[in-house]
Amino acid sequence: MTALQDKIRNFCIxxxxxxxxxxxxxxxxxxxxxxxxxxxxxxxxxxxxxxxxITIKSHAIQMNYGQYTLNLIDxxxxxxxxxxxxxxxxxxxxxxxxxxxxxxxxxxxxSNLYMAIDHDLEIxxxxxKCDMPNxxxxxxxxxxxxxxxxxxxxxxxxxxxxxxxxxxxxxxIVERIPAPEGxxxxxxxxxxxxxxxxxxxxxxxxxxxxxxxxxxGQQVRFINTGKEYKADEIGILKMNLSPRDTLSAGNVGYIxxxxxxxxxxxxxxxxxxxxxxASEAIAGFEEVKPMVFAGVYPIETEDFEDLRxxxxxxxxxxxSLTFQPESSVALGFGFRCGFLGLxxxxxxxxxxxxxxxxxxxxxxxxxxxxxxxxxGEVREVHNPAGMPDQTLIDHIEEPFIRATVITTTSYLGNxxxxxxxxxxxxxxxxxxxxxxxxxxxxxxLGEIVIDFYDKLKSISKGYASFDYHPIGFRPSKLVKLDxxxxxxxxxxxxxxxxxxxxxxxxxxxxxxLKELLPRQQFDIAIQAAIGAKIIxxxxxxxxxxxxxxxxxxxxxxxxRKLLEKQKRGKKRMKQIGNVQVPQKAFLAVLxxx
Length: 593
Prior knowledge:
alpha+beta; Elongation Factor Tu (Ef-tu), domain 3; Alpha-Beta Plaits; 15 helices; elongated
């Protein structure tokens, strides 16, 4: 370890959404003289991040405090981005655990904390927002001591808004967090924990050097993708990129090598030199797999190519977004997109609208299923339209998650009912402190992708926090539910659902469509079917013209003749008439409750 390496401290901040993580980072940047904060939240630079109070992309920045160099590696707080969090944590030696003095410990804080403890990070507990009138620092201290088993005097009370306690936090980082270990003369191993897209320079990868030294102009190799590049520029991350000639073990920096495709730079990959490089990658790399799939279609068909260009540009900033073209009879041409989770999906939709001015329709989100046919072959299905015929299927497996809900005891009953109604199985329930309880459930991912989170927030008045991680696939009794209009299936309204819920779901969909479809000159039959079996039906009544209005009296046979003629016309119209499904019908199916 070199003398210089002694003075480096790499740390991240772990917190639940809206516990003041980004504000605390701003105060630290101000106190170390790194920059003057002119507006709130300098690290959350997207409009969306500032509006929602969440960090979507990780950021990194270097500060100088006395003779020490502090590298803050900011992490996203939301469950959808947990792999990014794990790589950011792997690049650190310590973490600040920030807990809101008004809200106490929440689910996402705990899951990220366990991740940090698994990586042997030094944890510095901080209670933020101590200046608030409704702060309860003593109770929150008890919760933290229960959680970490630390001493009371190790907990720092602070307020990021007023700057109180920030000095103590900086001192604690220098004193308690160990300097990075690693040998500057060993073969190069650098961990990529993030990447950003720059329209002029291509993809810029952010890394932390675990072992070895890298020089500007060297040929480097990305071990997991096997691609080789020239390090055109390397440097450290101040508020802007700051070039350097060499960087050695323990440093956090960036590399520019003119990479054009986002998929070539993977978070968690290892960089080494082509000559005399390391043969082994840093452990922990995995491909980020999308969990939730939905069709994204342009409202105007001619915008298809613009939508493709917009998605490609988004993918440069967010490599975890996947998409492939698909077409639907009802909606025309569009893309099947894979997202990390529901929040990720919502953010992509917002960004398409704001940054690219694209109006899109998103179909019902669903998850990927494993379908085993009778020959014993397996295929992965993301879309109900891709399901083989019911007679060929042996069984279907669906992804399950382990869900953690933290709430107060007063909402326990309602939350239990909600989770059990979504086919959840109770694993355990533990009382944390006082009246707060942690409940663990195993449940199907498909049950939470539509409205679970909203319902959880409303029945607990916002007091429940929720976090989950995938635990693999399990066999399940799933069926494909088709919606037929006048006997014709509408592919965009098909869903995969559990056998027990199929009938009620089908009936509710038929009722909803009956309200939304405009009346025609003929009856429209709306049916829900599983295979050939119809399980629900509604009829949209025809609009009738009164053909007898001109008959004032006269023989009944004349009236009957007119009615028969009308009936034949209606029958012919029904054969050639097609039903247009309005846009709002697709959106309404998403919000059935």
